[in-house]
Write a structure and sequence with these properties.
globular; 13 helices; about 375 residues; alpha/beta; binds pyridoxal-5'-phosphate; 17 strands
Length: about 375
Amino acid sequence: MALDELATVEDRFVVGTYARQQVEFVSGQGSWLKDCEGNHYLDLFAGVAVCQIGHCHPDLVAALERQLETLIHVSNHYYTATGIELARRLAEGSLGGKVFFANSGAEANECAIKLARRRRPAGEIVVLEGAFHGRTLGALSATPDPPKQRPFEPLVPGFVAVDRENPQALADAVTERTAAVFIEPIQGESGVHPISAQMLETARTACDRTGAVLVFDEIQCGVGRTGSLWAYEQTRVEPDVITTAKGLGGGLPIGACITSPAHADVLRVGDHGSTFAAGPVVCAGAEAVLDVVDDAQFLDAVTHKGQRLASGLERLRADDVRGRGLMVGFEVEDAPGLARRALSEQKLVINATGPTSARLTPALTITDDEIDDGLSRLGTLLG
Ligand SMILES: *Cc1c(COP(=O)(O)O)cnc(C)c1O
């Protein structure tokens, strides 16, 4: 089917919640994608910061093939080793408690919301302005973005949003009635905005003072994206719960809510569940992703590649270059226009998070040469 015909069928049969770019991708390898006409594209977006080890990484493909031939699904009514081993690895490599598996980021956050409310019934949940926590009703209620929220009111009650740059407002908002504070340590969807150390430390202190749960949403900034396995490792703050998804499955749908030991047994039998979650296939995929990413040398390389990308952008005189590791944002006059022209004129995949902000989240396996190639394509557009 040609692209214009595909677009017509899509328009007729797919609910129109997405504004798609005019391209059909048919295959991918590493940081490269191929469209239906055989053109090759350099991918600096990685499917919204998801294809953490590039497209169709041989180790990921091999792990999935092995698992697909062995067992695909039995449900959480029974024991299967892949999910249990993955839980051990995730917990031991972070907060040390337990893991609840989900199928997406929003669902990982739903689990964290339920955990917080289970601990402090009817408690309020404090979130930061500019945060994005997902599209399901609980996660949407935690996402203080009026155009996204308003059509779906009434939302889940009890969410309070505070200025992301005002520690005093955050401290004042957290009381004995607060069940949790949710923070994206680096806000992704609103344009790559790192939250200051002072805000994170204020949140930790306020949660300690009131007994609220501090939840870091590492759905986008986790799994090595910022140069450490978890973004919180580069701060002086350890949260009580982290949520993760996106890069964890390397392209397969998986989410996880990881607790500290003190919060490991808040949710009990019957409190929460998911039919598909912790399936052997996605868990085998996540193991393969972690085998590549959870490695000191690999993570150091992410830091260096992030610096190469950011300093290259500064040399191109992009405004307000920000982020950490391979999660980079910058300002341009017309970001959606830049993303469109990058795709059509330069065969370069980048993303606009807003009218003036662009985001780059390449595969963590991208090479220095590919970064330089991407910068030169961007330079042509910005020059
Ligand atoms: C993408 C994202 C989510 C939602 O994840 P889905 O898998 O789309 O449900 C939540 N929080 C953050 C920080 C995200 O980047």
